[in-house]
Design goal:
Layout lengths: L4 H44 L10 E2 L3 E2 L1 H13 L7 H4 L4 E3 L9 E4 L8 E7 L2 E4 L8 E4 L3 H6 E6 L5
Antiparallel strand pairs: 1-2, 3-8, 4-5, 4-8, 5-6, 6-7
Helix pairs in contact: 1-2
Length: 163
């Protein structure tokens, strides 16, 4: 018995589509795992800089960091992503997200100088973020639920989308 090519294609097509869909989903899951691993590296590297002194305009572990210099350095060193120099400019990038959607590696913004988006940090998970706070301080982890930070929260951004 000879099967017409069109009929054969119709019989095979559903299984090919299912196989292609399975492969696409497996690739996307692998891509998500890769993104998550990269963001874990970002968080670990940021934490490794804990205690590095604050320095206005600073952008290196050797000389110290201000908040945006710290975030720029961490993103460039771990992900190769160049961010703008100021927290206000960084806030214009990526995707705006709600606090309930925060994931490690997202950026959190605060009004600490009586102007919106004057401060930025890197979200770590469990309501905590790491940042370079102010003169006389060093890079440290903070709890976002503290009154000081809750009152000054301006929003959050996701630079690495699709995860």
């Amino acid at each position: 018995m000879k099967i017409a090519p069109l009929l054969l294609a119709l019989l095979i097509a559903p299984s090919v589509c299912i196989a292609e869909e399975d492969a696409r989903q497996a690739f996307m899951q692998e891509e998500d795992v890769g993104k998550d691993a990269a963001l874990n590296d970002l968080a670990f590297y940021a934490l490794s800089l804990t205690g590095t002194p604050y320095r206005y305009g600073g952008n290196s572990p050797e000389t110290g960091f201000d908040c945006s210099g710290f975030v720029r350095h961490v993103f460039h060193s771990t992900l190769g992503i160049e961010l703008p120099r100021s927290s206000r400019e960084i806030n214009e990038l990526g995707e705006r997200i709600n606090p309930g959607e925060l994931r490690p590696g997202d950026l959190v913004f605060y009004n600490t100088l009586r102007r919106a988006f004057s401060h930025v940090g890197i979200y770590l998970g469990d309501g905590r973020f790491v940042h370079s706070p102010s003169s006389g301080g060093g890079i440290r982890v903070e709890d976002m639920s503290q009154n000081y930070w809750k009152k000054r929260f301006n929003g959050a951004r996701r630079i690495i989308s699709g995860r």
